[in-house]
Write a structure and sequence with these properties.
The complex is a heterodimer of chains A (254) and B (378). Chain A is of the alpha/beta class. Chain A contains 9 helices and 10 strands. In chain A, helix 3 crosses helix 4, helix 3 runs parallel beside helix 5 and helix 6 runs parallel beside helix 7. In chain B, strand 1 and strand 2 form a beta hairpin. Classes of the chains: A alpha/beta (254), B mainly alpha (378).
C-alpha cells in the first residue's frame, strides 16, 4: 500500500506536486496541446478554464497517461512519469474523473465503490472505508441501490467518491458539474472544498466561473492549446484578453 | 438475518438445535454468496444440496451406460463454468475455450499413453493437461492484451488459433510422440483412464467411481468459482468487463489481469479436457472444429453470461437434449441449438437463468408484500 508519510514532512508550499514542461500533443494536423509549461503546488485547488476546444481535457488526459504526449515531459513528485502506464500513475496517487460519466452502470453503489477501494484497503477495513466515502458524498442510504436508480448529480458524486477511493494525492476532475442543477453544483463545490481537508491537491477543468470562484484562488486559462493566462480569480475575470477569447461573453457570471 | 430475532427464537423454540443448525448452514454458505452470483438464500442452498443428494444416489438407480453419459455432461458443465469466468465475468469474448479443452485432452493422451506403466503416470498426465493449455493461452493472451487487442478481435484471433490447431492436428496421421500416435483425422485412441494411485489407496476408475470423481470436481469448481467471483478477483473481473479504461485509471494493470484470467480459464478448460479424454479414451481434431468451438459460447449465452449457475445448467441441459436428438438422426441437435441460440438472443439477451431469477424475485416480493398486508389486517 502506498504511504502518505514522507510527503507530509513540513510545509514546503512551494514544492510542485506536478509539473509539465514543453508538453505537446498533436492529433494528425491538429495541435490540441501546444508547448505547455505548467506547475501545480501541493495542497492547491486549481481550476483550468478556457473555451471549448482549448485543449483542457486533452491536457488532463496527458497527465493521467490516457494519451501519450507528442513532446514534452511530465514530473510528478519530482519523478519523470511521461512514459509510465496509466495504472502506474494511478497507483502513485493520481486519480482521474472522466468528463463523461463513468460509473459502472450494471452494478450497485457499493459495488462501484468497492472496485477502486479494494486495491488500496485491506479486506477487514474495506467496509469501513466504503462507509466513509458514502458519508463524504452523502449517499449512505443508497448503498445497495443500482447505480441507474441514482440521479445524474448523485452519479457524479459517486464517481468523485470512487476517485477518492484510490487514496489520491492529486485529483484530476474533468467538468464535475456538467449537466448539474444550480443546487447540485453548489453541493459539488462544498464537496471539493472538503477534499482539501483530506490532504488532496486538486486540478479541475470547469466552465462555471461562479463555481470556480467558490472553490479556488488560482485559475489557469487555456486557449488554442496554450496557457493563456494564470492568476487569482479576480485577476482572471478582469483580464481583458480572457474576456476577448470568450468571444465577448462576460466571464464574471451573472 | 436479524440476530436479535434469532436470540428470541432460540430461547422460546424447543427445537433450538435445529435453528442453530440452520445458522451453521447459513454461515457455511455465506462465503459463497454475494452480489455477483445468483442464489444467495437458504432456499437456493436447500435445493442445491437436495439435487446433490439425488446425484449421490443416482448411480444406484440407473444402468452403467446412462451413468457414463451423465458423467460426460458434468464434464461439459466444468467447461461451461470456465468460459463463464473468462467471457461472462471478465468480458473476454473467447472463441477458443474449446481449444483449451482439446489441448488438455491431447496433452493428457500423449503423456498417459507414454507413462501408462509408471505409478502416478496418469496423474502426471492430468497435471500436464492442465498446465499446457494455461501456458499456451498465457502466451496468446500476452500478445493480445499487451498488444491492445480487444473486443471482437479477440473472438476472431481465438477462433483462428483454434482452427489452426484443427488444421495442424489433421496433418498428424504419421506423427508419433513416443508411443502415442496422434493419428491425424482418425484421432488418438487407446488412451488410458485416469488412475488415482499416487496416494495410499489405488484404484482404476470404474464408471461409478469416475462419476463420483467428476461430480466432486464439478461441485468443487462451482463452489470455488462462486467464492472467487464474490471476492477481490470477482470485482476485478466485473470491473474489466464493465469498463476497462475506467478500471485502469483506478490502478489496475488490466493487461496483466486479463492475461492471468485468460490463462486461469484455460487451466480449467484443460482440466475438463483431461477428464473427457480419460472418460472416452479417445480424442480427434474435431474438438478444434468450428462446431465444437461454438458449443461453449452457445451454452453460456443461453444460460446467462453473468452467472455461473446459468452456464452450468445450460451446458447440462443442452448437452442432454443434443444427445437425445443425436439419437434420432444427425443434424437435429445443431438445428435445435441454432434456433435456441437465436431465440435466446432475441428474447432473453442476458440469458434464461437471469430472466427466471428476475421473475422469481418479482414474484416473491409481491408475495411478501401481500403477506405483510394480510398480517397487518389480522
Amino acid at each position: 500500500m502506498r504511504s502518505k508519510q514522507g510527503t507530509n514532512d513540513g510545509p514546503k508550499t512551494n514544492e510542485a506536486l506536478l509539473s509539465a514542461s514543453g508538453l505537446t500533443k498533436r492529433f494528425g494536423g491538429l495541435t490540441a496541446v501546444n508547448d505547455v509549461d505548467f506547475r501545480l503546488p501541493k495542497g492547491q485547488i486549481r481550476c483550468l478554464i478556457g473555451p471549448n476546444g482549448a485543449g483542457k481535457s486533452t491536457f488532463l488526459k496527458l497527465l493521467t497517461g490516457f494519451h501519450t504526449p507528442t513532446d514534452g515531459t511530465i514530473y510528478y513528485k519530482g519523478e519523470d512519469i511521461t512514459s509510465s502506464h496509466p495504472h502506474i500513475r494511478a497507483k502513485s496517487g493520481i486519480s482521474f474523473k472522466f468528463q463523461k460519466l463513468s460509473t459502472y452502470q450494471d452494478l450497485t453503489v457499493e459495488q462501484n465503490l468497492r472496485i477502486p477501494t479494494q486495491l488500496y484497503t485491506d479486506g477487514d477495513q474495506l467496509d469501513e472505508h466504503i462507509d466513509e466515502l458514502l458519508e463524504l458524498v452523502e449517499l449512505t442510504d443508497k448503498r445497495s441501490m443500482p447505480v441507474t436508480n441514482l440521479s445524474h448529480g448523485e452519479q457524479q458524486w459517486l464517481e468523485i467518491a470512487m476517485t477518492m477511493g484510490v487514496e489520491p494525492e492529486l485529483l484530476l476532475l474533468d467538468e464535475p458539474t456538467a449537466g448539474m442543477t444550480i443546487d447540485e453544483t453548489e453541493k459539488t463545490a462544498g464537496l471539493v472544498r472538503d477534499l482539501i481537508d483530506e490532504d488532496v491537491t486538486v486540478l479541475i477543468v470547469e466552465h462555471d466561473i461562479n463555481f470556480v470562484r467558490g472553490i479556488s484562488d488560482m485559475v489557469t486559462v487555456m486557449h488554442n492549446g496554450q496557457i493563456f493566462a494564470e492568476g487569482s480569480v479576480e485577476e482572471i475575470v478582469t483580464h481583458e484578453g480572457v474576456k476577448k477569447i470568450y468571444l465577448g461573453k462576460s466571464v464574471e457570471g451573472d | 438475518m436479524d440476530e436479535s430475532e434469532h436470540a428470541t427464537e432460540e430461547s422460546s423454540n424447543p427445537h433450538h438445535w435445529f435453528s442453530h443448525l440452520l445458522d451453521r448452514f447459513d454461515e457455511f454458505h455465506a462465503r459463497f454468496e454475494g452480489p455477483n452470483t445468483i442464489g444467495n438464500n437458504r432456499t437456493f442452498w436447500a435445493v442445491f444440496w437436495g439435487i446433490f443428494a439425488i446425484l449421490l444416489v443416482y448411480p444406484m438407480i440407473v444402468n452403467t451406460f446412462v451413468l457414463k453419459t451423465n458423467t460426460s455432461f458434468f464434464i461439459w458443465v466444468i467447461l461451461a463454468l470456465s468460459l463463464s469466468i473468462v467471457w461472462g465475468y471478465s468480458g473476454i469474448f473467447n472463441f477458443g475455450q474449446m481449444a483449451t479443452f482439446g489441448l488438455g485432452g491431447y496433452a493428457y493422451g500423449v503423456v498417459a499413453i507414454n507413462l501408462t506403466e509408471m505409478i502416478g503416470g496418469t496423474v502426471l498426465a492430468l497435471l500436464i493437461g492442465v498446465v499446457l493449455p494455461a501456458v499456451v493461452m498465457a502466451a496468446l493472451g500476452y500478445f493480445m492484451f499487451y498488444g491492445q487487442v480487444s473486443g471482437l478481435y479477440v473472438a476472431i484471433i481465438t477462433l483462428v488459433v483454434t482452427l489452426m490447431f484443427n488444421l495442424l492436428l489433421t496433418r498428424t496421421s504419421g506423427t508419433t510422440i513416443g508411443d502415442a500416435q496422434l493419428g491425424g483425422l482418425n484421432g488418438m485412441s487407446g488412451i488410458p483412464t485416469l488412475e488415482l494411485d499416487v496416494v495410499a489407496f489405488s484404484f482404476d476408475l470404474t464408471p461409478v467411481s469416475e462419476y463420483y470423481l467428476v461430480l466432486a470436481l464439478m461441485i468443487a469448481v462451482y463452489l470455488g468459482l462462486r467464492y472467487t467471483v464474490n471476492s477481490y478477483y470477482g470485482y476485478v473481473m466485473i470491473a474489466i468487463r464493465e469498463d476497462e479504461r475506467r478500471t485502469q485509471m483506478f490502478g489496475y494493470d488490466i493487461r496483466k489481469l486479463k492475461t492471468a484470467l485468460f490463462s486461469a480459464g484455460a487451466a480449467l478448460g484443460g482440466l475438463a479436457g483431461v477428464l473427457y479424454v480419460s472418460w472416452s479414451g479417445f480424442i480427434d481434431p474435431t474438438m478444434f472444429g468450428l462446431v465444437s468451438a461454438s458449443l461453449p459460447i452457445i451454452w453460456v449465452t443461453v444460460g446467462g453470461r453473468g452467472t455461473l449457475l446459468g452456464s452450468g445448467i445450460a451446458a447440462y441441459l443442452l448437452q442432454y437434449t443434443s444427445n437425445e436428438l443425436g439419437a434420432m438422426g444427425t443434424g437435429y441437435s445443431f438445428i435445435f441449438l441454432g434456433i435456441l441460440f437465436i431465440l435466446v438472443i432475441l428474447f432473453f439477451p442476458s440469458g434464461i437463468v437471469p430472466a427466471l431469477r428476475d421473475r422469481w424475485v418479482a414474484w416473491s416480493t409481491t408475495r411478501k408484500q401481500s403477506g405483510s398486508v394480510q398480517e397487518g389486517n389480522s
